[in-house]
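Q: Got a minute? One more chain.
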Amino acid sequence: MENVGTKIMQILSNVCVVPIHEIEMHHRLEEDLGMDSLDVLEFTTEIEEEFEVSLSELDLYEIKTVNDIFSQIKLYLSPSKLPG
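A: Always. Here it is, folded:
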């Protein structure tokens, strides 16, 4: 399995059509990467499918930067959130 961070960056790069090497952790999704609401929906769908998670509306509301994405995905992939 690919590194989680690498996969997140690949999905983000594909959705916002920005080369991976130009995406930085502090970048804001809308202002810096030019994502609109449809891009966010596409990104969210791809993240949920890739990592088999379901992000709540509150989670989405709190995600403003690339770093926020990583923080939320880490929470969902923590052992306490895994089934079993």
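A: The chain has a mean pLDDT of 87.
Q: Perfect, thanks.
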